[in-house]
């Protein structure tokens, strides 16, 4: 078993060995190392990002996603300029340093519309702005950066090209290369974030290890990792999933401990990156998922600020909405958890700080 004290030298094979580790005693070393590196490299601050799900329209047919065009009938919505601004004001009222605007891939969110929203949040509210609007043209991305957007989240979902093609069908005339888009966005001056789901059918231990090694290779600024939560209305939850399933012993399970191993190993190989304790993790384990993420490498939480009647329509996976949890309750719970862990609430925009060690 590769030594964790030499985490800097963990290669894909070493990562895979730790992902496969099932011995609880040995895993304690992994949890301890991830928490220590988190504390040494990004400190005790937990950064809060207010999530605003601005539209559930989507032109894509991602086989895993509950708001994909192919996922069956679903009422569609798109927030107005004023509705988005109202959410951003809430973020500021709660003291969050950042808003994250996320959506399906929606051409109805035009270059101009997003530029205006971003500029107003940037100038009038002074919040950092993260966009997560899918694969967009460089001209859109440049305009939004100029308008004041700071960061962009685009998970590459898997480094296995055949699996990616199976779960993420292309659009006519468009090449889908998310890693290439991430690299271009970094050149435009964005902080860039990516990530994967844990346990999608067809994901092997070796694939997931390569995914984590790729986070390091591209020196990603933010990395989101959550369990895959099958939505019965999507192809991946049906025959496609069965067909893609890797052989027993090779298929990664979509459970909490495996997700936590992926989070912990990501912290070790990308020590100063920002890593959220994801909503998907807290849905899998409502009692402890968020806490377990924060104590095994994560340093970010993204409370949902989407108005509740829209939130229940942004159902990328089942149970996601936490529909009945108001932002007040959620924020109170998160603040209580941060205090109970002896951590502090991050102040300011909470961008990536590369510390010299
Ligand atoms: N349209 C944007 C935002 C997608 S939602 C984009 O494609 O980037 C953000 C992330 O949720 C996705 O990147 C995916 O990794 C995750 N997700 C989607 N469906 C999921 C599911 N069924 N279970 C768990 N995570 C899911």
Question: What keywords describe this structure?
Answer:
357 residues, TIM Barrel, eight-stranded parallel sheet, 14 helices, 41% helix, binds S-adenosyl-L-homocysteine
Walk me through this protein's architecture:
This protein is α/β, with parallel strands linked by helices and 357 residues long. The chain has a single domain (7-345), classed as TIM Barrel (Alpha-Beta Barrel), CATH 3.20.20.70. It is built from 14 helices and 8 strands. It has helices spanning 12-20, 24-42, 81-93, 111-125, 138-147, 161-167, 178-187, 205-217, 239-244, 256-269, 279-284, 289-295, 308-311, 327-340; strands at residues 45-55, 98-103, 128-132, 151-153, 191-198, 222-227, 300-301, 344-345. The structure holds S-adenosyl-L-homocysteine. Residues 64-65, 102, 104-105, 132, 134, 154-155, 157, 197, 226, 228-229, 231, 280, 316-317 line the site of S-adenosyl-L-homocysteine (SAH).
């Amino acid at each position: 078993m590769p030594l964790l004290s030499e985490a800097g030298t963990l290669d894909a094979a070493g990562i895979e060995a730790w992902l496969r580790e099932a011995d609880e005693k040995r895993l304690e070393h992994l949890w301890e190392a991830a928490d220590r590196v988190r504390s040494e490299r990004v400190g005790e601050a937990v950064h809060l990002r207010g999530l605003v799900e601005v539209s559930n329209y989507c032109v894509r047919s991602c086989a895993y996603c509950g708001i994909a065009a192919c996922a069956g009938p679903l009422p569609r919505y798109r927030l107005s300029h004023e509705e988005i601004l109202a959410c951003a004001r809430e973020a500021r009222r709660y003291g969050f340093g950042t808003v994250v605007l996320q959506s399906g891939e929606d051409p109805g969110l035009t270059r101009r519309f997003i530029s205006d929203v971003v500029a107003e949040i940037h100038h009038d509210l002074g919040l950092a702005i993260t966009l997560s609007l899918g694969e967009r043209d460089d001209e859109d991305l440049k305009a939004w950066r100029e308008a004041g957007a700071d960061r962009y989240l685009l998970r590459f979902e898997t480094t296995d090209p055949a699996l990616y093609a199976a779960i993420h069908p292309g659009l006519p005339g468009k090449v889908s290369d998310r890693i290439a888009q991430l690299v271009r966005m970094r050149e435009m001056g964005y902080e860039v974030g990516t990530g994967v789901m844990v346990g999608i059918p067809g994901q092997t231990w070796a694939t997931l290890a390569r995914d984590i090694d790729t986070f390091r290779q591209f020196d990603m600024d933010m990395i989101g990792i959550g369990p895959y939560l099958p939505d019965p209305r999507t192809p991946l939850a049906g025959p496609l999933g069965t067909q893609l399933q890797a052989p027993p012993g090779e298929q990664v399970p979509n459970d909490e401990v495996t997700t936590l191993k992926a989070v912990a190993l990501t912290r070790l190989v990308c020590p100063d990156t920002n890593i959220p304790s994801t909503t998907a993790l807290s849905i899998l384990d409502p009692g402890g998922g968020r806490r377990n993420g924060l104590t095994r490498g994560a340093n970010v939480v993204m409370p949902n600020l989407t108005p509740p009647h829209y939130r229940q329509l942004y159902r990328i996976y089942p149970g996601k909405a936490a529909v009945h949890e108001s932002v007040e309750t959620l924020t109170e719970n998160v603040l209580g958890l941060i205090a109970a862990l002896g951590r502090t609430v991050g102040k300011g925009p909470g961008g990536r700080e590369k510390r010299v060690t």
